[in-house]
Amino acid sequence: MIQVQNVVKKYEKDYVLNDVSLKIQRGSIYGLLGSNGAGKTTLLKTIAGIIKQNEGAVELERKPVFENVGLKERMIFIPDSLFFFSHYTVAQMATFYMNVYPNWNQKRFDQMQQALDLDPNRKIQRFSKGMQRQVAFWLALCAMPDYLILDEPFDGLDPVIRRKIKSWIIQDVAEREMTVLVSSHNLGEVEDICDAVGIIHRGKLMLEKDLDELKSDIHKVQIAFKDEVDQTLFEELDILHQEKRGSVYICIIRGDDQEVEEIIDQFNPVVFDILPLTLEEIFIYEMEGVGYAIENILL
Amino acid sequence: MRSKTSYFKKELWKQAFRSFGWIGIGYFLALLFLLPLQIIMVKTKNDPNDINYYRQNIDSLFGLNGEIQGVLFLIIPVLAAVFTSRYMHVKGSADFIHSLPLRRSQLFAHQFLIGYMMILIPVCITACVLFVLSGVMDVEFIYQSKDILNWFYETLTFTTFLYAIAYFVGTLTGMSVVQGGLSFIFIIFPAGISMLINENLNMLLEGFSVHNASFFSFSSNLTPIWWFMELSNKSNLEIANWIYGIYWLLSVIFIGISLMLYRIRPIESANQTIAFPLLKPIFKFGITFCFMLLGGVYFGAVQQQSEGWMIFGYICGALFGYLLAKMLIQKTWRVFDQWKGFMIYIGISIVVILSVMFDWYGFEKNVPDVGEVEGIYFVEQNTFNNWYGGRLDQKLEQSNITNPDLMEKVINLHDFILVNDHIGQNQDNTYMEKSTDIEIIYHLKNGKRMVRQYFIPSIDEVEEYVKPILESKEYKQSSLDWLNDKNNRIRSVAVSGYDYRQQVTDQQTINKITDALKQDYLETSYEEMIQSRRYGETKSLEFELESERTYFYHLPLLDSYSKVLKVLEQEELDRGLSIHSTDVSMIAITNLQKNEEIFYELPLMEEIDLNEWMLVEDHEQIEELISLNNDVGGTWKIAFYGPYDKNLIDAYQVSEDQLPSYVTDYFE
Hints:
The structure holds two protein chains of two kinds. Chain A is an alpha/beta fold. Helix content of chain A is 36%, strand content 30%. Chain A has twelve helices and 14 strands. In chain A, strand 4 and strand 5 form a beta hairpin. Chain B is α+β, with helices and mostly antiparallel strands. Chain B folds into five domains: 10-184 and 225-269, no CATH class; 279-349, no CATH class; 370-479, no CATH class; 488-570, no CATH class; 581-667, no CATH class. Helix content of chain B is 54%, strand content 11%. Chain B is built from 25 helices and eleven strands. Chain B has helices spanning 10-34, 36-45, 48-57, 66-84, 86-89, 91-99, 104-136, 145-172, 176-204, 214-219, 224-233, 241-264, 279-302, 307-330, 340-357, 384-387, 404-419, 463-471, 473-479, 481-484, 507-522, 526-532, 562-570, 619-626, 661-667, and strands spanning 373-380, 436-444, 449-456, 489-496, 501-504, 540-546, 551-556, 586-590, 614-616, 636-641, 648-654. In chain B, the strands form three sheets. Chain B has a four-stranded antiparallel beta sheet. A four-stranded antiparallel beta sheet of chain B has the order 9-8-10-11, with helices on one face. Chain B is globular and about 100 Å long. The chains are: A alpha/beta, B alpha+beta.
C-alpha cells in the first residue's frame, strides 16, 4: 500500500506539490492525471524515494520510503525519458539489475527475450524509442517489483506496443498483486487499466476516485414531462450539470441509480432514459462541480 | 529467491570503470613516460654528461619532467572528481541512480572511491615500477628508495587534497563545467582573496603594511598551486611536516562535509549551477565582493590610486560580479530585472569603504608615545644593507631600535610623515631615484604590535629624521645581523671586481675580511648608505653562509671600506678591484639620463652625437677621470671602455662640481 500524506514540495519559492494526500491499495493500478507541469513527475519521484518532500510523509507499507533500501529493492521507477548507461547492451544492463535488485528473475528474463525477439547483445541506445521502452519494461518486470511507478509510459508509442505493455502490467498485477502507479496527461490512455484515478493540478490533488464506484455513482439522465415540472424535483437530486433542449431535460446526477430512479418516477416523466457516460464525460462534469473546466486540465 | 546483497556493488564499479577508466589509464601511462621511461632512456644513452647533470641537479623525482607532473597533479584530480560526480549532475542518471535500492552514503562511498582509485592506483604502480627499476639497474644518480617514498607521499598528499576539494565542489553544484571551474577557483581562493584585501587596504589606508594582516600571509601556505610550483621548480624544497598534516586534515574535513551535504542534496538540482538554494546568495554576493575588490585594485593601480577612480572601480566591479553571478545561477544573460539585492549590497559596501577611506577606526592618525613603546623594528627599504637582509616576516618579533632617543626620532619621523600630506601617501607612488619605503614596527609595552609602512617620494625630505637612525650602531648592526651573529659560520667569501672574481674558503682569511668589514660598515656614512644601492657597484663581496639551506649575502664593496681593502690587498685578493688607467682605452661622458641605456652599444655605434657625448682617449685625462668615483653619484655619467674592442668595463655617476673644467667647457 502506498500512502502519501500532506506532502509539500517546494522548488525555491514555488510550490510544486501543495498538501497532496493519496492512498493506493495493494494490487491496484492508480492513474495520476494532470497537464504538463502539474506536479505529476515530482509526486512520482517523491514516491519512488528519489527526491525528498519538504513536509508530509510518503510511506510504503507504513514505512517512509526515502533512503529505505528494503523498500526500494521492491520498487522500480521508469521515468518518462528513459535512462540506460551509455554504450550498455541489454545483457549488461540486466547484469547490473541482477546485482542491484535481489529479486531478479533470470528465468523470466530469458522467457521474455523469446517473446520480444530483441537481441540482448545490442547496445540499447541503438534501439528505436518503442523498443527502448520495451527494454525498460523487460528489465523492470524481471526485477519482480512489488511497486511499479511509471511516468508517462505510453507517450508516443504505437497502439500495438501500448497494448503489449498494458497486458504485461495487468498480468503482474493479477498474478503477484503488484501495485502500479501510472501517470498520464491523457485519461483515455489509462482508463482501461486503472482501478482508481487522481487528478493533480498546479500541485494540488483536485480529485481522487475509484473508477468502478465513479461509474456507478454518476448518471446521465434524459427526462421529459408533459407539463411544466415542479422544480422541487431538481432540488431533491444532486445535479452536477443540467441543460434543457425543447422539453427534454438532460441531467448529470450523482447518487445511487435506484434512488435516482425512484425520485424521478414520483414526478411521472413522459421520457426517462439513463444513458451511458464515458469516463471523460464523468470527469468533465465532476470538475465543473468544483469549478474547473477539465478541458483546461486534461487534454 | 533473494540473492545475497553486499555493501559493495560490483556492477557499479564496472559501470564506473567503463565510463571513466580512461582517466586512470591515461594518468598511469603519462606517469610511466614521465618517470620510469625517462630514467631508462637516460640510462641506456649512458652519456656521462647527462649522468653528471642528473647526479648534481636532480634531488627528487619531481626533478624529472617536473612541470608536466605539476600540470597532471592539477588536472587529473579535478578531472576524476568531475567525472565521478557526473552521475548526479546529469538529470536522467541522477534520477536513475537515486531510484536504485542504494543508500546515499553507500553511493557516495562507491563513487568517491572509484574516482580516488583513478589517482591512487597509477601512483602506486608507478612507485612500484620505480622501486623495481632501482633493483635491476643502477639509478642511484637519480634517486634512491627514500626518494620514491617522498615522491609517493607528496604526490598523494596534493592530489588527494585537490580531489577532495573538487569532489566537495561537485556536491555543491549541479553542473560539471561549474565544478571544474569552481574547483580551480577554490584552490587559489585563499591567496587570491587575501591579496585583494591587502591591496585594497594598502590603497585606501595610508600607512598600511602587509604585515598588518599576518593571517593573510599564512593563507598562501594553504594555496596548493603555490606548492605545486615550488615542488616542480625547486629540487630541494623542504615542506614542513605539519603542512602535510594540514593538507590531510583538510582533505578529510572536505570529504566529511561532502558526504554530509550529499546526504541532503536535492536530486532535482542536477543541471543547476548551485545545488543548494541556501548557497545561492552566498555565491552571488561572494562573487560580487571579489569583483568589487578586483575593480578597485584595477582602477586604483591604473589611475595612480585616485579615490574617485577607485570608487568607480568598486561600483563597476560589483555590478559586473553581481550580473555575472546572476547569469551563472540563472544560466541566461538576460538578468537585468532584479536589483533589490544589489542595491542593498552597494549600500552596505559604500558605508564600509567610506569608513575605511575616512579612517573612522583611527588607523592612520595613530602614533604611539615614546613611553608606550618597548622597541621598534625600523626598515628603510632602499639601502643596500636591507636588500639581502632576509625575509622580514622572520624579524617581525625583534626590535632593532631600543634606545629611547632613537625611538623618539622614529616617532618624530612618523609624525612628520603624517603632517606632510604628500609624504607617505600611497597614492601616486611613482618610484623615482630617491624614493623609498619605510616600515616601522612598534612593539608596544602592552604586548601589542603596531605596523605602518610609508612610501617616501624622496628620502631627502626626511633626511633629518632618517639620517641619525640609519647611522646608529644599533640599526646598522641589526640590518646586517647575519654578519654579526656569532653562530653563523661563513663558508666562503667571493670578491668580485670589474673583471675578476675570486673565492676564499680559508677560514682565517674569511675572519680577517669579516672583522674588517664589521668595522668599516659601522663607519659608513648616511650618504654612502642611501647611494650605493642605486647604482650598480663594480666591487662586491658575496658571503655564503653555512646552514641547513644555503644563503648568499651580497654586499657592495665601498671605496671607503679602507680596512677591508687593506686586508684584500694583503691577501692578494684585490685583483680587478680598482680600474687602472692602463686598462682603459676610452672614456665617454654624458649628462643625459637616456644615454645611460646605450653605454654598451656606444663603441659599436657608427655615428655618435658629439653634442651629447664627450669621448676622452688621452691617458692623463683618463687617469684623472678614474679617480672621480666616490660612490656618491650625481647627474653626470661616465663610462669606461677597455682596450679589447672597447668593451664596457664600468660606469658611474658624478656630480658636476667634481668634473674638471675641460669637461664642463666641452658641453657649453
